[in-house]
Specification:
Elements (H helix, E strand, L loop, with lengths): L1 H7 L1 H32 L7 E4 L1 H11 L1 H6 L3 E5 L7 E4 H18 L5 E10 L4 E9 L21 H6 L6 H11 L4 E5 L5 E8 L30
Parallel strand pairs: 2-4
Antiparallel strand pairs: 1-3, 4-5, 5-7, 6-7
Length: 232
């Protein structure tokens, strides 16, 4: 069809090329996400855990999305207090978790919304952690979808997710990486009130607990501490 259109209808040929490019990019993203998930689940994803400065990583990720946020007139900021303790993490894994969460927040938020990457210290019953939250003022998510958000290929709005280029694997990858780093992830959202995705990281000087949670507890809020209440 493209070969025929190149001669008879150059305008249509350009349209076909756009379709090919968009779908090739979606296929590339899907393959990359599938490979990442496969490596994580098969334990081939080797973590290099070191003491990380969360402020540096958050600033880096926010800078990566600055131009995209400005195009949608979305206020994207990092709220990481000075003097926040270092965390035990793999730099690449931590960067991927934050990148996926910020990407989702920008993707589904309307113009003039806000997205904040926030970090705060917490003392749980077992250990000291830092809770990292990605908070948006987007449309929010219906409660019935929340328990299944981290399942692979699960989509709240299949048509919209497909139009925006999502693969349906991003949040599943985030969940596995958070557990590999000895933490947990939780979502709090309501329609019309935005969403908060938060995960915990162990503070420096402590050992990671990378054992996965019991199957029945994986979709529940973290039990280490009360869930965040700062939904914007």
């Amino acid at each position: 069809t493209l070969r025929f259109a190149m001669e008879s209808d150059p305008e249509a040929a350009g349209h076909f090329l756009d379709l090919i490019e968009r779908n090739a990019e979606r296929l590339h993203m899907l393959v990359e996400d599938l490979l990442d998930l496969s490596r994580i689940e098969s334990r081939e994803f080797r973590l290099s855990v070191e003491d990380e400065d969360l402020g540096d990583v958050a600033t880096q990720v926010v800078g990566l999305f600055r131009e995209r946020a400005e195009k949608k007139q979305i206020r994207l900021t990092a709220d990481v207090p000075a003097g926040l303790p270092l965390v035990r993490a793999d730099h690449r894994a931590l960067e991927q978790v934050l990148t996926n969460l910020v990407d989702n927040a920008l993707k589904y938020s309307p113009e003039r919304a806000s997205v904040v990457v926030r970090a705060r210290e917490e003392q749980t019953k077992r250990r000291k952690v830092v809770r990292v939250s990605v908070i948006d003022t987007g449309p929010g998510i219906e409660e019935k979808h929340l328990p299944r958000l981290f399942e692979r290929f699960y989509r709240v709005d299949k048509g919209r997710s497909r139009d925006l280029g999502g693969t349906g694997l991003g949040l599943s990858i985030v969940k596995h990486l958070c557990e590999a780093l000895g933490g947990s992830i939780h979502v709090e959202s309501a329609v019309g009130k935005g969403s908060t995705f938060s995960f915990t990281l162990v503070q420096a000087g402590q050992e990671l607990d990378t054992s996965p949670p019991p199957p029945a507890a994986q979709s529940q809020p973290p039990t280490e501490s009360a869930p965040p209440t700062d939904v914007v």
